[in-house]
Structures are given as structure tokens and as C-alpha cells.
Amino acid sequence: MRVFSIWTICAALIIATFLPAAAAFAETKGNTDKETANLKSAIVIEQETGKILFEQNENKELPPASMTKVMTLLLIFQALEKHQISLKDKVNVSEHAASMGGSQVFLEPGETMTVDELLNAICIASANDASVAMAEFLAGSEKAFVANMNREAKKLGLTHTHFVNPTGLPITDHYTTAHDMAVMARALLQHPKVLHYTSKYEDYLRENTDKKFWLVNTNKLIKTYPGADGLKTGFTNEAKYCLTATAKRNGMRVIAVVMGAPTPKERNKEIAALMDNAFAAYMTKPLLKKNKTVALVKVNKGEHAEVPIVTKRPAVLLLKKGESTKGLKKSIQMKGTLQAPIKSGTVVGHFIVKKKNIVISKTPLIVKENVKRASWWQLFKRSAGSILTH
């Protein structure tokens, strides 16, 4: 009887040890195990491939609070990359921007800040006034900027997202989902310079003046969670405590989103557990770097007869720990014949990796530079040369 009792106790301990971890990372919708019972919705994705590692009520439309600023930041960094603005540009603060409540850095009407300073205020202190100042600077008005936010959401294929402001301050008809937030975060991380700002725990605004303002990051995970370096917290009475977080370990970056946690402590605990499980269960294997030339492809009526096509982003395999990479088949799949002119960055095909005839990796291939249409003289010489060689 004693032996039976000992074995019963041992079995119970084993189950208690391993069952929660397995349940917390079950890849099923509507999972309501105790690991995520206090959340309205959650999702975890791998950044390079975009593959979903965990989901729970991921398409439930909810107020995102200040996680809204992920989209605001995406539009800012797109403008920086296109050289439409620079970090040194000076932004004049309007009365409207200065009037924003909630999280703020107390900008004054007529005050001038650089784009760099305002990015610090948005990323570290979640400043609503800085967000509206940047919105007006980029689009001329907050309303026009919000239209751009919704346009970009459609471009990203987000079907459960609608913005009414660039801050996340409570307002009717302003909503998104955990899934859509993860997609936005993935797009933002295509601009890695954002991590320079979101990874700072503290900084100062107006540092060399008598109005020096201490900025402290609202995302405490960057100080407590190994590998965490972003992205954006959120809280309103309606939204409760939300967080879109990212962390990188051993070359693998994950994005995790939780919405509707009852307390900041619970929010951080839940998201840390989700990311822990992702890192414990999965690994990535790099195949090709970003901008790697994979082939020379003929262009119909192009200035050059052939152009290089390159990877738009790194080609990466997402694998379960211990999974074999034997038997992989790699191929290039073009969308069709290339026809000049072609704008740089146009996706013209995919680098495909299959295992047992199942696609396990699909990386977009692009034309790196503009492909101009050939002049009639170039086409004539090419045609004549072709005739002479036959």
C-alpha cells in the first residue's frame, strides 16, 4: 500500500510539473488554461517567419490603449526610411498636441522638439502629446495622419482594426486585436532602429535646461526579462493592461501580445510565460541573409536583359527543438515573366523550402533596383545581336 502511495505521489508531481507548460503553449484557439485565464486575448509569433506559436481569442476586437502607438511609430519610421523626414528635423508643438491628456511629457504650445526627442518621448514614456505632434508634423493634421494609419492597416491585411487617433486615448470605434497588433509589431521591426528607443529604460528630455524631464520606460520587461528590447504597453480603464512585447534569444525573435490583463504584474507575468514557452519549444535556422542575390532573371523589354533578384528579408526556418532538417527541398518560384519597367522593391517571386512536400518557409524575392524600359535602339541592337548569333 505504501509503494502504491509513493508511485501515486510521484505521478502527481510529474503531471503537475509538465502539464501547465504543455497546456500554456497548446496551439489551439480559445485555450483557457490557467496560464492565460486572466487575459481577454493573446498571441505569440516568430518574427522572421510570422508563424503563430500560440493564440487565444486572437481576433477578438478590443481597445488597444497606447499599443496604438505601434502603428504611429510604423508610419514615422517609414517616413524616416524614405528620407521624407530626418531625426534632426524640428517639430513645432501645436496647442492641440499640447492639450493631450493621459501619458504625456508636458509639451508646451510653440515649443520645438526634434524628431529624435519626440521618438524618445513616445517610445519610453508613451507620450500622447508627442504622438500627436509627430502626427501633425507628418500629415498636416491628426485627422489626416489617422487616415494614413487606417490605410496602412488595410495594406497590412488587418481586417479587425480601426483607428480614430494616434494615441489610444479612449474613444468610440477605436479597436484592434492581438493578431493585428502582432502583425503591426512585425512590420515595425522591419525598421530595427526603433529598438534603439524602445530598449532604453530611462532618458531625459530638455536635459540641459531648467525644465529637465525624466523619462522612464513603461515596459518594465526590458529590465527584467532576458532578451527583451521593446515594444509598447497600454492601459485605460476599458482596455485594462495590455502589452505588445518582443525579445530575442539565440538568434530567434518572438513577438507576444496580451490584452485585457487585470494588473500590470499579471500582464508581465503572462507575457513572460508565453515567451519562455516559445523559446523553450522552438528555434530558428538561418538560410539566406536579407538582400542575398538568388538568381539572375530575364526581363522583357528591360534596359538590361537580366536583373538580379534578392531576398526581401532573411530566409529562415522555424523548427521545433530537436527537429531534423534532412530532406529539405529549395526552389525559386516566380510570379511570371518580368516586364519592364519595374519599381525597386517589387515582389516578383518567392524562395521556397519544402519538407515532405509541405512548404515550411516562403521568403519574398524582390527587384533591388528600378528596372527601366529599354529604348527602341537598345531593343533593336539586342534583336539584331540575337539574329546574328543564330
Automatic annotation (TrEMBL):
List its EC numbers. Answer: 3.4.16.4
Annotated GO MF terms: carboxypeptidase activity
Q: In which pathway does it act?
A: Cell wall biogenesis; peptidoglycan biosynthesis
List, alphabetically, the Gene3D superfamilies matched: D-Ala-D-Ala carboxypeptidase, C-terminal domain, DD-peptidase/beta-lactamase superfamily
SUPFAM superfamilies according to UniProt: beta-lactamase/transpeptidase-like, Penicillin-binding protein associated domain
Q: Where is the Peptidase S11 D-Ala-D-Ala carboxypeptidase A C-terminal domain?
A: 282-373
Which family, according to the similarity comment? Belongs to the peptidase S11 family.
Protein name (record): serine-type D-Ala-D-Ala carboxypeptidase
